[in-house]
Write the structure tokens for this entry.
Amino acid sequence: MNNYNYDWKKYLTALLITAFIFVTSVAISNHFSNQKIESLRLIGDSISIDILSSDTQFDLLESSSCEAVDNSTFSKELNALGERVAFAEKQRTNTEEVQLLKKQYTLLLIKDYILMKKISARCEVEPIFVLYFYSNIEDCADCTRQGHVLTYLRQKYPQLRVYAFDYHLDLPALSTLLSISGITTADILPVLIIEDQQYKGFMELEDLEALPLFIELQVQKEAEEADKKAEEETAKNEKNNKNLEKTAIEE
Amino acid sequence: MLATELLMYIFLFATLFFQVFILLTFLDTRKDLFKKKDFKLSKFPSVTIMVPCFNEERTVAGTIDSLLALDYPKDKLSIMAIDDGSTDSTPEVLKQFNDNPQVTVYVKENGGKHTALNFGLEKIESDLVGCLDADSFVKEDALKIVVSYFMSDKEIDAVTPSIIIREPKSIIQRVQRAEYYGSIFLRKMLSYLGAIYVTPGPFSIFKRDVFTSLGNYHHAYNTEDFELALRMHSNNMKIVNAHEAHVTTVGPYSARALHKQRLRWTFGFLKNIIDYKHLFSTRKGALGAIVLPSGIIALFTIVFFVSVSLYNIAILSINKILALQAINWRLSGSPFSFDLFYLNTDASLIIGIVLVFMTILAFTYGRKMVEQKDLLTGEFILFAVLYVFVAPLWIIHSFYNLILAKSTEWR
């Protein structure tokens, strides 16, 4: 005869331990999420200081500042921050915090964009940036595709700055930028602004690469590669010559 | 998406609760589990072991030899080999035992394993009766240990052994070896809980009275060993596990053979569970309250996680293809860089790690219980990787068969 006894204490203990593991796992997960948010905030703060510093430096030195102001390193940092914010947004944890960070990031982008415009106007250099307006609320499949194309271009040309703005982000500065750019409805998204020219709807990679900005970037890239190759060749020849001299002396 | 997450956490909670419950049982019983026991017998009840065989020409002789080598008085142990209409040379192989007074060989028309067992049961009058599949082999002291369990507690109606995979050759067999260690641990814990729900073909021993009062084996969707255990529980009978009694068995060699075996087991589990749904009751202790419900939940959990994973993989692949299509299939050439920021720190992942850790613990203790020294790491990784892909196949196939009222085959 089997004894189907109940040990209620054991059931309760198992339940409590399970609940404890669950609560602890959620707490650990939250701790990591908060740490990530904190790291984003720190990066944001650091970039904010750098942009403000460049801007102030630029204003102080007036037109002689073209060489003194070099904020090309921000490009990478801004891109990295943008990617992390997008990742955090997809995770759907700490939603309010992430939205706040996204606003901070967007403000940094606008600020950097204004500075870049100032630099390009005053120093008479070609602006190497693209304004990109997208939506990730509605089903904007073209926005996703455009995002892939721009990611590719940014990887190919590291000096390219892509200022990507979420149309639906509730931020007064962004609303102003949208209205200045003449974007009044989400229906026309994605929108690209390259060298003050507006392009509505999806732009193919080939069409983008045919624009003067990207032709210039390609020329620069090829020139840099040629320089690099020449340098390597010279270094190689020098090494060979040294070896030959060494052999001659030994003989 | 929220509903999916909610469902995921419900499944994770249920799985974790079961694992914790089993772990608590282990902590309660660990002293008894690893206590050195003396299996000396003062009395030797008569035992008959049936060996049903169908096309087992390669292993049946070894199976019977292992039974003949059992450390048990010869006049108290009878072996009954029942050929269930084999089409290979099994009947010829069995002829070599014709002169052995301990062995009786019968040949009957093919009718399935349960008919062979019932054929034997009609002729048995010993105190204890058992079965040994013709691809399994017993260790010398196995019967003595099993009988000592019967002697130590008069309430016991059936005793099951520890089953170990014999000399694994293929990857599939090696994976099963790891899996079986896990089963050894689980079966012992279920034994302490009075909730063993299967009396497996390899060397489960019963009191003759079990069949006298409950009747013979049923077809039971080709899982007669599962049905009998449930029938015994319906009649409040006691099944325990003698983990010290070792039986080795040949596991299916190929993935296809394994699929067929597990399809039969899973389908049989589902069908019999429906037939014995009255056991899902708190009056049946842990069996009705936790063990059987967990078995069902586990099947749904596996199907759920695999479906979600496949869906996610499909979405990821489609996105990757769309991304490549958008840049005209050019390679972006971005170097791979590891960044802790992108590490998944979801609560579900942390719970998953806890579950894996508990499973490893069960496998390790299962191995320790049968005093095996073989290194398990490789097999465990193989088990984790391979079963994730193959187990859902037979589970989904079983549900499919269940819905379409299809049946399974032995081979």
Chain A touches chain B through 36 residues (CB under 8 Å). The radius of gyration of chain A is 27 Å. Chain A has one domain: 9-206. Chain A has seven helices and four strands.
